[in-house]
Structures are given as C-alpha cells and as structure tokens.
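Researcher: Let's do a round of design. I'm pasting the structure tokens now; please hold your answer until I've finished.
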C-alpha cells in the first residue's frame, strides 16, 4: 500500500474517491487563495468508463489503494461491499479493514496501517470529523492530502478550517462532553495535519459550493465518472422523495417530519421514498403505513441509483448533499430536483444552535436547476407552498 492511500467509511466517500480518480488528471481548479500552488499532480489511476471488470494491466497501473474502515451499521456495510466491488471492477485496489470489530480492532488497525500511512505520497479522506481518521492522521504527515465529500459536512469543514476553529460537526451541541474532552488533543493535532503547510498541500474535491480556506485548493467534482458509467435512466411518472437522517441525529422533530413527508407525497404524486442508510426501521415503518409510500433502501449511493434508473421525473429532497449532487449526476436527463426548506418550528429543543442556519445555507446554495419548496406555519399543521 504505497503511492496514494484513501480511507473511506461510507459508500458516498468511496463513490467520490472513484470520481476523484477518474478526473484527477483534468479536474479544473475552481478556487484557491494566497496564490498557493495546487501541488504536484500524481499520475491518475486508469479507471475504465465501462462497468466491466478492469484488465490486469489496469490494475497494475493503479497507484491508488482504498482502505475501507468498515462501520458497524448493516446498511452502510452492505452498500460499502457493493461499492468496493465497483471500485475493484474499475481497477482500484480495495482493502477491507474491520476497524470496529471487537476490543482489539483499533490497535490491530493502527498496527496494520502505520507503515503504509508513513510511506503514502498522497492520502485521501472522506470525513475529517471522523475520530478514527483523526487518530490515523496523528501517525503521519502526508505531503499531499485530499478531502472528498461525505455529505454537506464538507461545507462546515472548509468554513471551520478557514476560521481556524476546532472541528465539530454542525449538528453537535457546542459544549464538549466527557468523550470529546478525552479526544480533544487528538482533534487538535488532526486539525493541524489537515491544514496546508510549506511541506503539505491540501485539496478539497467537492461538488458543493465551498470557499477555499487559505492555501487550500478546491477542485470541482462534476460526477463525470457516474455519468460516463451509468444511464441515462428510464423516467417514471410522478415523483420520488429522498429521506434524511435529521430525525436520527436529533435535529428535526419526528412528528413534523412524518407530516411533511405525507404532504409532499400528496402534492407531488410521489410513490417511492428513498431512505437514508441511517434512518431507523421504526421511522420508515411509520412513513410506509401513514403515507402509503413504497420505502426503498438503496443498495448503492442515490446518485448511482438515480443514474441507473428508473427514477421519477421529479425528485424531492430535504436539505442534504443530493440537492447539489443529483443535478450533476442527472444532467441532461430531464429530471427536476426540488428541496424543501426546514422551518424553525420543526427543530427539536436539543438541536444545535447552528442547525437552522446550516440547513438554510444548504437550501440557499442549491444548484440553480433546483426548485425550492417552502413551508408556512399554520394551525394545526404546517402548510407547504410549492414554488
């Protein structure tokens, strides 16, 4: 494991590593500051654009090794298994690491990855907020570091890095708990390893509208690999809804969420609800019973599911990465993407004070092709207004 080393913990991270590998040699730079150089470009792995297995020659030419730090969640593991096979089919080397399996998993993982980490010329990570990745970052100082999207948290990471703040997920409360206090030194050191220096370049490879922190290169992720490999999709009538884990993360009230899903389904003639991999079985059962929607647990990231089809002519989503990524993945297909605003009264009392502003920012910066759906509070339920 030398050359280029990627650490992924979610299916979307692995998808975006594939996108990075596909576009590395030609991706346009869309933002830098301080006149900092983009850093030397390493030879890009030869990633075939077909879904057929790569030849032995393609595998030998690949200098990128993907290490899957496997999560414990069954849905995430299943999607990651399928994404890992897609990556292998495209000629990448994939190493599955049971990083959370048992008491000795952490020590075993650190022991196995220490040497390849120290020898890697470039390290690619998908979640700079991950405690696991932060711990790995304390073991090495790569010459080149790339951060790929793992949801809208990329926007918060870029903002916090630019302001010199400690790294905290946007939906977390401001105060530090006992676990955060113990890990604070690791987070502080990791933040320094994520910042550019004279000896280290930092790149953010993203489809999101982020402002480049000082010295950081921002490279556009246009989902070229996804479009080249899959589709165009067959379009169905009506609409599809895209779920979110905002209830599970303690941000949105469950009753408000269920009511709005029902309103959206009726207003748009939706028949399917694409569940987020972190949504609870109890919530999904409630949605199926109360709305009559067919709940679908995707086997791959939604960008690939939508591109392969079939997909509704309208896709309605709560604030999430897909309001930025789906218009790119589905460009030229005629699919319309819409995003629903999160009203302040939906938020739980336990939600972070930053939640409303962050979610509004996601909606407000959505692609121009995305329709915005708003709510107006009434009694006894909120009323949806579609623009």
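Researcher: That's everything. Go ahead.
Model: Designed sequence:
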């Amino acid at each position: 494991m030398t050359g280029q080393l990627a650490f992924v913990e979610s299916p979307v991270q692995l998808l975006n590593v594939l996108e990075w590998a596909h576009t590395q040699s030609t991706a346009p730079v869309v933002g830098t500051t301080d006149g900092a150089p983009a850093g030397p470009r390493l030879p890009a792995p030869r990633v075939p654009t077909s879904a057929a297995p790569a030849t032995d020659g393609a595998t030998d030419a690949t200098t990128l090794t993907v290490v899957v730090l496997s999560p414990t969640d069954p849905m995430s593991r299943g999607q990651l298994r399928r994404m890992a096979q897609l990556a292998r089919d495209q000629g990448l080397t994939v190493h599955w690491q049971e990083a959370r399996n048992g008491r000795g998993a952490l020590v075993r993982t650190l022991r196995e990855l220490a040497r390849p980490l120290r020898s890697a010329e470039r390290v690619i990570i998908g979640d700079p907020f991950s405690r696991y990745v932060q711990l790995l970052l304390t073991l090495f100082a790569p010459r080149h570091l790339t951060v790929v999207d793992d949801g809208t948290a990329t926007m918060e990471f870029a903002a916090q890095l630019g302001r010199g703040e400690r790294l905290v997920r946007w939906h977390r409360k401001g105060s530090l708990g006992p676990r955060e206090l113990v890990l604070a030194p690791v987070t502080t050191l990791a933040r320094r390893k994520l910042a550019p220096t004279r000896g280290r370049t930092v790149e953010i490879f993203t489809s999101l509208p982020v402002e480049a922190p000082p010295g950081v290169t921002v490279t556009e992720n246009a989902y070229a690999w996804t479009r080249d490999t899959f589709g165009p999709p067959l379009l169905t009538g009506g609409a599809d809804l895209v779920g979110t884990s905002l209830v599970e993360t303690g941000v949105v009230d469950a009753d408000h969420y269920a009511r709005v899903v029902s309103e959206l389904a009726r207003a748009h003639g939706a028949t399917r609800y694409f569940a987020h991999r972190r949504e609870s079985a109890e919530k999904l059962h409630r949605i199926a019973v109360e709305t009559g929607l067919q709940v679908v647990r995707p086997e791959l990231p939604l960008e690939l599911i939508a591109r392969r089809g079939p997909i509704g002519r309208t896709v309605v989503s709560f604030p999430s990465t897909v309001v930025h990524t789906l218009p790119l993945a589905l460009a030229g297909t005629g699919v319309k993407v819409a995003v629903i605003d999160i009203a302040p009264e939906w938020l739980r009392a336990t939600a972070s004070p930053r939640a409303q502003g962050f979610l509004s920012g996601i909606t407000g910066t959505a692609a121009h092709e995305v329709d915005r759906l708003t709510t107006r509070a009434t009694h006894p339920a909120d009323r949806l207004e579609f623009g």
